[in-house]
Design goal:
Elements (H helix, E strand, L loop, with lengths): L2 H9 L16 H24 L4 H8 L3 H51 L3 H29 L5 H27 L5 H21 L15 H18 L9 H23 L15 H32 L3 H29 L2 H18 L8 H28 L6 H36 L4 H27 L16
Helix pairs in contact: 1-2, 2-4, 2-5, 2-6, 2-7, 3-4, 4-5, 4-7, 4-8, 4-14, 5-6, 5-14, 6-11, 6-13, 8-9, 8-14, 10-13, 10-14, 10-15, 11-13, 12-13, 12-15, 14-15
């Protein structure tokens, strides 16, 4: 389904059971502009997430900072996303579609301007926090709006385009950044992103309309601080696992504080949701299909993020590949994942999640098993072929899981469900990265202690990481056998 077809799907909102009865159908130009505008805006903000990684060395030299301090430009972004996303359910309910879009993209644009003009690392970090705050709003907003306006039998196809945005934008980011760095300073990255963001902000102010009435729910004084400490501590602690430069007590302390605050946050939400005043309504987890889909998504995100961090590291250190070569080797997989999104969406609308998920998870498990067999003589084409197979499988996995998870919820929980999905992505991604890096480092050190050469030790370390991930994906494939299609999401007739 193309973006133009997305618009036609929105025009048919009157046929969809997902819209709240109180909402009037959207018609005409506002309907046609809604999803495409949100898709393009989401692409811009997600593209920004990965553009800076390639430029960290330049930033270190320009601002005179250490590698550990420079890494905070990525860590701070991830932490901000983790603490803001849980609040987006309440924020979307409070502001409505149009104001949430303008607020999210406005804050992102302001952050981009701050980054562009930043004279010091402190100001640059502040800009990254602002960028992340705006980014955290956009994806839940997109998915919530999609569920409200797209008929159930077309959600898979439209969600396929969401998967394309999620997949292609991060894959293109490092390549675009590397290209821009050939022509000038790292500030050029923000100089290119800023006018595009401002254009989308102006377009949204002109075109977008609310798809539901904003609520008057007040923000609980305890919920937000507990969310900040809980999710922030959890993600920060996970990001420190395996970091040799961090103090030995820092990760356990952060994880302990995060778990305690998260427990208090959950207890608080259980009380507040009795009067529909929760920051994050946890009643969505009482729906089995949503919970199972979220568990599968967490496992898949752990595998994906673990591979994203481990494979480039392995290719550079064990095979001596240049960063640009590694980026080009992994780019086709990211692009393929994105291009398959709309195709997978159509297949989901016809066949449901189980037929797509089980084979895809099995293929990912098989690819991880193949990655565990890498040797010093493994040709690059073999790694490329495995990465393409893995990326194609993840396209089937994420499109199916996004659609199934949100499709299982009643309309009043769409915004909270989108926030829950986003939160799981951040936490699972951090956990996957931490687990892969920890296993990789520990097994590499053990192999070196046993007398293995540098390359052989690195391959041995990666082997155990990929074998463990393969076992997790195999378990996920078994769990997927029990995943049901949402009740209101029936397959269309064969002639549809």
């Amino acid at each position: 389904m193309t973006i133009a077809e997305d618009a036609r799907a929105v025009d048919a909102v009157g046929d969809g059971p997902a819209r709240p009865a109180s909402d009037s159908p959207l018609e005409g130009r506002p309907a046609r502009a809604l999803i495409p505008t949100l898709l393009v805006a989401a692409f811009v903000v997600i593209l920004n997430e990965t553009t800076l990684n390639v430029a960290l060395t330049r930033i270190m030299d320009d601002l005179g900072i250490t590698e550990r301090l420079a890494q905070w430009l990525t860590t701070a972004f991830m932490l901000t996303m983790a603490v803001v996303i849980p609040a987006t359910g309440w924020l979307l309910e409070r502001l409505g579609t149009r104001r949430a879009y303008l607020a999210g993209l406005g804050v992102f644009s302001l952050g981009t301007l701050v980054c562009l003009l930043s004279p010091t690392i402190e100001v640059l970090l502040a800009g990254r926090v602002l960028q992340a705050s705006g980014t955290a709003v956009m994806m839940p907003l997109l998915m919530t709006t999609l569920m409200q306006v797209v008929p159930a039998d077309r959600r898979g196809a439209v969600m396929g385009n969401v998967s394309m945005v999620i997949s292609v934008a991060p894959a293109v980011g490092p390549t675009l950044s590397g290209l821009l760095l050939q022509f000038g300073s790292w500030r050029l990255i923000f100089a290119v992103v800023l006018p595009i963001a401002l254009l989308m902000l102006a377009l949204g102010a002109w075109k977008l309309v609310d798809v539901s009435e904003p609520s008057g729910n007040r923000l609980d004084a305890w919920s937000l601080p507990l969310s900040l400490v809980g999710f922030g501590g959890l993600v920060y602690g996970l990001s420190l696992v395996g970091d040799a430069a961090a103090p030995v007590f820092e990760a356990p302390l952060a994880l302990g504080v995060g778990v305690f605050a998260l427990g208090a946050f959950v207890a608080r939400q259980l009380v507040l949701q009795r009067r529909d005043a929760a920051l994050l309504d946890l009643r969505m987890f009482a729906i089995p299909t949503f919970s199972v889909a979220l568990v599968l998504m967490a496992l898949a995100m752990m595998g994906l993020f673990g591979t994203i961090i481990t494979l480039p590291l392995l290719l550079q250190r064990a095979y001596g590949m240049a960063p640009l070569t590694v980026g080009l080797l992994m780019l086709p997989g990211g692009v393929l994942m994105g291009l398959l999104g709309p195709v997978v969406g159509r297949l989901y609308d016809r066949f449901g999640p189980r037929v797509l998920l089980v084979p895809a998870l099995a293929v990912v498990a098989g690819v991880f098993a193949l990655f565990s067999t890498l040797t010093p003589n493994t040709p690059p084409w073999f790694i490329l072929a495995c990465h393409l197979a893995m990326s194609a499988s993840f396209a089937f996995i994420f499109t199916s899981l996004f659609t199934t998870a949100l499709g299982a919820l009643p309309p009043r929980l769409y915004s909270y469900g989108s926030a829950g999905v986003g939160t799981v992505q951040q936490v699972a991604g951090a956990a996957g990265t931490a687990l892969f890096v920890t296993v990789f480092a520990a097994q590499t050190a053990a192999a070196q202690a046993a007398g293995a050469s540098g390359q052989a030790a690195l391959l041995a370390g990666a082997r155990w990481g990929f074998l463990g991930a393969g076992a997790v994906m195999t378990a996920a494939a078994i769990v997927a056998l029990f995943l049901r299609r949402p009740d209101g999401d029936a397959a269309p007739p064969v002639g549809h």
